[in-house]
Each structure stands twice: as C-alpha cells, then as structure tokens.
Amino acid sequence: MIKCYNFDIVCQEIPDQITLALNISGCPHQCVGCHSPWLWRDEGVPLDDHFLSLLIEKYSSGITCVCFMGGDQAPRKIDALAAYIRQNHPDLKIGWYSGFESIPSDIRIENFDYIKVGPYIAEKGGLRSATTNQKFYIVGKDGSLTQYRFPPKNCF
Ligand code: SF4
C-alpha cells in the first residue's frame, strides 16, 4: 500500500498548471543529497481512490492537475490511481515524478500527461540544471513523448 505523506498546491513542478502535488512516502531510491529524506520512511495516509477523491473534491476549484511525487515502490498502483483520475475527473491533467531511470514498461502511459524520470544526482542537479540527468516528458494523446526543458531557476 502506498501512502501520502503530505500534499501541497504548487505551480512550478508542472508547466502551466496549478497542481495538487501528492508526496508519497516509502521512496526506494535513497538518492545521496535527497531533498526529502523523510519520504524514505513508510508513513502517511493510505493513498486509495477514496482519499484521492476527497482531496480532489476539496481542491477542485483551484487546481488543473494532480501529480504523484514518488510511488516508485508500486508503479502499477500509481498507474491505477492515474486511471481513476482520468475516468472520474477528465478535466484534470495527471503527472508523475518518478526516480526511475526510465518509464516503467508496465504502466499505461496514456494515463499520464506528464512524466518526470531520473534519480537525483547532486553533481548533475535537478530539472532546472543544464547538466541534469533527469527528464521531463509531455505525453501526447497518442502516447508520444516530448521532452520539456525547464528554464534555469534564475528565470523566475
Ligand atoms: S527519488 Fe526523490 S525522494 Fe526518492 S531518494 Fe531520490 S530525491 Fe529523494
């Protein structure tokens, strides 16, 4: 079972979207220099369809996107939750921030509009670094992937 450690409404993780970002605990990657090592622990509220619906209904007037931040211990569960949003909240975009090197082959990519992959490697930097190993993709309706490059941080 995956758990939601906490959540926030954010504007910079997904371009041009106001995003309900769900921070999922139990991250298996343990990257050196991790920005959120508390997410390594298995703590929080079980993240299921019911809890997801409650959150979406509470914040629906102010969000355009839901993004799963983590959940790599159970990609198929993330995929199932994304499918639930797709079916029940078709106006919302859906994102996934994963620490995997590449997109897992056992998810249905059409359940997502945005997918970020790549562990955090301190010397390469995050998504706004010119040397980053991480990749952020916009998923087309046909399942195509277009890489999006975030502007450097000092542009904001
Ligand atoms: S994938 Fe993200 S949350 Fe997990 S250890 Fe790496 S930086 Fe931390």
Describe this structure in words.
The chain is α/β, with parallel strands linked by helices and 156 residues long. It has one domain. 16% of the residues lie in helices and 25% in strands. The protein has two helices and eight strands. An eight-stranded mixed sheet has the order 3-1-2-4-5-6-7-8, with helices on one face. Iron/sulfur cluster binds at residues 27, 29-31, 34-36, 39, 70, 99, 119-120.
What strand line-up does the widest sheet have?
3-1-2-4-5-6-7-8
Order of helices and strands: EEEHEHEEEE
Proportion in β-strands: 25-35%
The biggest sheet, with number of strands, parallel, antiparallel or mixed sense and barrel status, is: 8 strands, mixed
Secondary structure class reads alpha/beta
